[in-house]
Design goal:
Distance between the termini: 12 Å
Family: Belongs to the HAD-like hydrolase superfamily. SerB family.
Strand order of the largest sheet: 8-7-6-5-9-10-11
Keywords: Amino-acid biosynthesis, Hydrolase, Magnesium, Metal-binding, Serine biosynthesis
Number of strands: 11
Number of helices: 12
CATH class of the largest domain: Alpha Beta
Strand content: 15-25%
Enzyme class: hydrolase
Mean pLDDT: 96
Radius of gyration: 20 Å
Protein name: Phosphoserine phosphatase
Structural class: alpha/beta
GO molecular function, one term: L-phosphoserine phosphatase activity
């Protein structure tokens, strides 16, 4: 396998020998003009625990990749929204407008870490706390607080150029996914719909809740629509409700993810941006 090492800063020469020794690699080369990417050929994937420890200590991201792998080999990139494509958890920020951010954020964190097993219950509890809030809070969250994750637009432009379609599938809300679809030119979206009556949130979600099973099913259905195998999908996420979707994909990427997700994913991007995906190929 090739071992690809990435950093936000140029990787110091002092890392070259230790990494080559840990990976049992026969060749190391700088794979980016700015010095932020190393490629170690002939690396031993069984050395992953040692590589993981070294890279974590030195704030380096790593991935074992098959030689010759190309981005164009894939047909779809499926992404979570909150804390993956964007930097915030929208429901936490909405709750801030009714003075309940800390309470809602605690439930969100426990759910994403896998400590609350029933996502439907977790979401229902959180949304119920928003009852009576003026729906204008949603627009304020989008305009004032929602930010794309670093490298998001570069990543999307390059995957589109390589011929891949894009799917944004979220346990969050359609108010935000539809705005992002229009803004970023995404091909497909799926999320939850907040019920709004007379300009206020009712504290309820309309229709089927987008939980882990629905995320995985949406990926499969999108692949069927495109006529591709799920193995030609790249899935990116950060929370436990992304695990089933990521398990369907040929390549799974844990982005700034919870430990349970990092352990299950093909690779993790803990430090670099979403455009780190591009540098793997």
């Amino acid at each position: 396998m090739n071992l690809v090492i990435q950093s936000l800063e140029p990787i110091a020469d002092t890392h070259l020998k230790p990494l080559a020794a840990l990976a049992r690699s026969r060749q190391t080369e700088r794979a980016a003009a700015d010095g932020t990417v190393l490629k170690l050929s002939g690396a031993d994937p069984l050395q992953r625990p040692d590589i993981d420890a070294y890279c974590g200590t030195h704030r380096l991201d790593y991935a074992f990749m098959a030689p010759g792998a190309r981005l164009a080999d894939f047909g779809l990139v499926a992404m979570d929204m909150d804390s993956t494509l964007i930097t915030i958890e929208c429901i936490d920020e909405i709750a801030d407008f009714c003075g309940l951010k800390a309470e809602v954020a605690a439930i969100t964190e426990a759910s994403m870490r896998g400590e609350i097993k029933d996502f439907n219950e977790s979401l229902t509890r959180r949304v119920a706390l928003l009852k009576g809030l003026d729906a204008s809070a949603l627009e304020r969250v989008y305009e004032e607080r929602l930010r794309l994750s670093p490298g998001a637009e570069t990543m999307l432009a390059e995957v589109r150029a390589a011929g891949l379609k894009t799917l944004l599938v979220s346990g969050g809300f359609t108010f935000f996914t539809e705005k992002l679809k229009a803004r970023l030119g995404l091909d497909f979206t799926r999320a939850n719909t907040l019920e709004i009556v007379d300009g206020k949130l009712t504290g309820k979600v309309i229709g089927e809740i987008v939980n882990a099973e629905v995320k995985a099913r949406t990926l499969r259905e999108t692949c069927a629509q495109l006529g591709i195998d799920p193995g030609r999908t790249i899935a990116m996420g950060d929370g436990s409700n992304d695990l089933k979707m990521m398990a369907e994909a040929g390549l799974s990427v844990a982005f700034r993810a919870k430990p349970v997700v990092r352990e299950a994913a093909t690779l993790a991007l803990n430090f670099v941006g979403l455009d780190g995906l591009l540098k793997l190929f």
